[in-house]
Specification:
- Helix 2 crosses helix 5.
- The protein has two domains: 54 residues; 84 residues.
- Strand 1 and strand 2 form a beta hairpin.
- It is built from seven helices and two strands, in the order ααααααββα.
- Strands 1-2 form a two-stranded antiparallel sheet.
- The protein has 142 residues and is mainly alpha-helical.
- Helices cover 55% and strands 6% of the residues.
- The mean pLDDT is 88.
- The two termini are 23 Å apart.
- It is globular and about 50 Å long.
Length: 142
């Protein structure tokens, strides 16, 4: 997905052909909830995607020092760590993150990544050509 996602963004999302809807899937319990809330707190600062990238870049470190790594990720994402921590302390996005998770599981999503394009579902990281074919078909470009 590291090579695929930027191509999808460049060719489909930026031009406004499609939109990407991100749902939080909390596979790691409380740790996942904290990370989901942190990304939403970063979104309040316009830094959601940057925070998401910073979190994924620290994936292995997040198992032991999650709170510490969230601050480091916020700094890397150029989000204000103090504002992010205040947002976390206030549980600003807790209900929304839980609702997002419940919506994803209600749709049958149990693991990630899962992509829905029209009526099709893609499970797991796939080459760009797979996404391109499904996206073009959904857009009537096939």
């Amino acid at each position: 997905m590291l090579e695929t996602e930027p191509l999808i963004i460049e060719q489909y999302i930026r031009p406004g052909k499609v939109r990407l809807v991100y749902r939080h899937l909390q596979q790691l319990g409380e740790r996942s909830e904290l990370l989901s809330e942190a990304s939403e707190c970063a979104a309040d600062q316009g830094r959601f995607w940057e925070m998401r990238a910073a979190i994924y870049g620290r994936y292995n470190q997040l198992f032991t020092n999650t709170a510490e790594q969230v601050v480091a990720a916020a700094t890397e994402a150029e989000a204000n760590p103090e504002a992010l921590q205040a947002c976390l302390d206030a549980a600003t996005h807790e209900a929304a993150v839980r609702a997002d998770y419940e919506a994803a599981t209600a749709e049958g999503v149990r693991s990630r990544p899962v992509f829905r394009i029209g009526e099709r579902t893609i499970i797991g990281g796939q080459p760009f050509a797979v996404f391109q074919g499904f996206l073009d078909e959904a857009l009537g470009n096939s």
